[in-house]
Design a protein that fits this description.
The chain is α/β, with parallel strands linked by helices and 204 residues long. 27% of the residues lie in helices and 28% in strands. It has 2 domains: 4-138, P-loop containing nucleotide triphosphate hydrolases (Rossmann fold, 3-Layer(aba) Sandwich); 153-198, no CATH class. It has helices spanning 15-28, 65-76, 92-105, 124-132, 195-200; strands spanning 4-8, 33-37, 45-47, 53-55, 57-58, 81-84, 108-113, 135-138, 153-158, 161-163, 176-181, 184-193. The protein is elongated and about 55 Å long.
Length: 204
């Protein structure tokens, strides 16, 4: 019986690496599937910080994931799985579509994402995944805060200063920029912190 499985963790916990490994193993076993992502550090690809990457379908907000899967079945005769990276960015309606892929098309869905944004709040896609998933698995590779405690929060830094307000989706980690800070583009990066130092905005 097909399942919707949600793997979650902080940045640096190995989500994309595991997504690529699952896709590789299933494809090598002869199964037909799709690799999907949204706003990865590499455009239209799933990329791991270890340097491994694979081309992927970019999930834009208007993409109907159930129709995509159904079209693959119509064209190729089968679809056994979807591997969905950066699923925290998917719209709630798209998460519902992934559940329909499992229930109506009998294809497994492996979704990977962050739990919370830089404000410490659940992403909309994550919230819906937690509500619908058959299995919820926290990744056991523990990223660490600079103090060596377990990192639990993704802090957004704008020109090196932690912020708690702003657009929910701003891609950093690759030299992202955000408008509106002192009237100019500002460099956006992210840092992993424990809850204490995230609350204190303490970076060292």
């Amino acid at each position: 019986m097909a399942e919707l499985i949600f793997y979650f963790g902080t940045m640096g916990s190995g989500k994309s690496t595991l997504a690529l490994q699952i896709h590789h193993n299933l494809a090598n076993s002869g199964q037909n599937g799709l690799l999907l992502t949204q706003l990865d550090r590499a455009a239209s690809a799933v990329s791991s910080r270890l340097g491994v990457s694979e081309p992927a379908i970019e999930v834009h907000p208007g993409l109907d994931l159930y129709r995509l899967a159904d079209d693959v079945i119509a064209e190729h005769g089968s679809l056994e799985y979807l591997v969905c990276d950066e699923a925290q960015f998917y719209r709630p309606a798209q998460i519902d579509q992934l559940a329909e892929v499992v229930d109506l098309l009998d294809a497994d869905v492996y979704a990977f994402g962050l739990l919370t944004d830089f404000r410490g709040r659940l992403f909309e896609g994550t919230s819906r995944l937690l509500e619908l998933a058959d299995q919820r698995q926290e990744l056991q590779v523990e990223a660490r805060c600079w103090c060596t405690r377990r990192a639990t929060h993704n802090a957004r830094l704008v020109d090196g200063k932690q912020v708690y307000e702003g657009e929910i989706v701003v891609v950093g980690d690759t030299g992202g920029h955000e408008e509106g800070f002192e009237g100019a583009d500002a460099e956006v990066t992210y840092e992993l912190l424990c809850r204490r130092h995230w609350n204190q905005a303490r970076l060292t």
